[in-house]
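Subject: Protein record for review, amino acid sequence with backbone structure tokens
Why sent: The fold of this protein is of interest and is recorded here as tokens.
Notation: Tokens come from a learned vocabulary of local backbone shapes, not from coordinates.
Attached in line: The record itself begins immediately under this heading.
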Amino acid sequence: MNVKTIKSICFECHSRCGVLIDVKDGKIEGIKGDKDHPFSHGYTCPKGRACMEIIYHPDRITQPLARINGKKSGPFEPVSWDKALDIISTRLLESREKWGAESVVFGSGTTRGMAPYLNRFLSVFGSPNFMAPSNMSGGPIVVGSAATCGFTIVDPDYAETKCILLWAHNPEASWPGLYLHDINTGLKKGAKLIVIDPRGTNYARKADHWLQIRPGTDVALALSFIHVIIENNLYDKSFVDTWTTGFDRLKEHASTFTPEACEKITWIPAEKIKQAAICFAKSKTACVGPGMGGVCQANDAFDLSRALTILSAITGNLGSKGGNLQCTPPTRKRNCYGPDYSPSNTLPKDVAKKKLGLDTYPLLEFIPIPCAPQTVWPAITDGKPYPVKALGLFANNSVCAYPNSKRVRKVLQTVDFFFAVDYFHTPTTELADVILPPAHWSERDDVEDLLMKNHVFAQNKVVDPVPECRDEKQIMIDLAQKMKLDGYFNSIEEALNHRLEPIGMTFSQFKDVGRYSLPLEYNIHEKKGKFKTPSGKVELYAEYLTTMGISPLPVFREPAESPFSSPELLKEFPLVLTTGGRNIVYYHSSHRNIPSLKKRSPDPLLQIHPDTAKFLDLEDGEWVNLVTPRGQVDIKVTYFADVHPKVVHAPHGYWYGVDEGWKKININMITNDEPLCPVTASVPIKALLCRVEKKQKEDICAQ
């Protein structure tokens, strides 16, 4: 049989690069980048190139599994799909009958684009509780920027700008297929580059201005940028006068964040702050590239997003060519997180208001993001604000992915019923009552539009699923039918056609086209005569937030653990720990068992300045104990000169290949999930305190 090449979209991460896949005799034989893709332009990362290893891995779960006799401690045994779905159906319906539909929560990790289908299922079932890690990845950017200007600043116009500001963002490791081509295009055209990062990434080292910030002090630095720009009359007076409200209050608020004052807070020399701020403001056009994790994992994440949006606004770069664009997905209200699927919009108001977290984070009723895991855990363990009794997790290794792993594990052991959908066994699936095997992205059709700017792409099914794996959409359809739920999709084709209705195509028509785009629009506020905010203008000072107990101006909060806020703790834990910098080899905690990937990055590496390491008598490559007030994990030292001597960085997601690895090498065993951002429930894992200890001889021998 001849080799057939099929065009599709890779979903080993959210970049979703265009790929060309070679198929022979019903099996994938090769994969390469699609040079015609408008974002990735032929790029593929190690994860994408490893797709055959993932699909045909001998440890892939290929049939439903359930606990013997339904006991939490019992071993798993293979069961039929009908039996597995019957168990899940019975337990979900029992929970709804006894505790109400809100007692059921579905959660996702990467989801492989599953948000609209899970949300639709929850809506017809009656639960408002869809849980995702949005509070620590993108959600605070969405909420903060939408609260300020009515749209989100996640679409920088890198290729057309004169100045690129990467704020806590390392696109080479996190979003290469989506952003690198445009960033490099902008730089080749002469754009200036400013990087805010405690670590010397490749972009930081070649930047015109690299500000090596103390972790957790970003809001102070952003306010200092704003102060410098206003003080030097470098703001866009016409835009500010016409399109913003509260400028004088902002000016007064930022006046205390002088570069000199900010130097003491951020550890960045005052002159460097001035130079970078002036460079940004004086560029004809400039855009802010916010890091999905770096900006969102702090106790003041909402305020940072507000401050960055304000920075874009006062320099006249909000919504303009070369600035931060306002993009409309062609699927409109039926995009991945669109309101047509959100239980917040589709359920009766009294039910929607039961969504976990709204009692503490009221703004999220009006600018909705999924329930933060940290709002779900108390409902499971303590029944507050009401009991959650059943949980379904899709592509979600919560034990390793979320901070305070010990707490997460206890939660999953406590919940009455828990089913998981995943390719492989993980520290999370081992706690489930039922495990279902999903199809790989290459084994299913789908629609991709999340963060795709003004595009929507077809993800074409390339091969049939490995028996007995099923498309997650089909799993939800089968479960809805088993539960006799009215209003859910009857087929995958119906679900995809529903997504595409706004562009006037069926999926069978769309897959032949491959993608659909809307024209990019600039300065939409000028055409509409307003921004989508309560005042119709950019809310530099957002008076309406005060009614929810939220500061109308961005507020800097010193991290709860820091050299300044906890000096007594500093005596025992003298180093600042930042965590979670992305690794191009992996996608969070997934892919850890894939041989070609594990070979490239086998161990968690603690980046530490050579001078600090030598002071502590630590050798490059030595295994050590990394200790915080919450415990310790094993980690391997790597000398890294491009980090502050008082700062160390530990990666996340490591667990595979070590007995009880979730406990021994998983950084989230020693991170914290409090205090949360008071507006978005973001977690403070970018700025903690720690110490590094040499291992005792008996510990080394044990390894």
